[in-house]
Amino acid sequence: SPIMEELITFHDHAFMAVSLISFLVLYALLSTLTTKLTNTNITDAQEMETIWTILPAIILILIALPSLRILYLTDEVNDPSFTIKSIGHQWYWTYEYTDYGGLIFNSYMLPPLFLNPGDLRLLEVDNRVVLPIEAPVRMMITSQDVLHSWTIPTLGLKTDAVPGRLNQTVFTA
Question: What is the pTM of this model?
Answer without folding.
Answer: 0.68
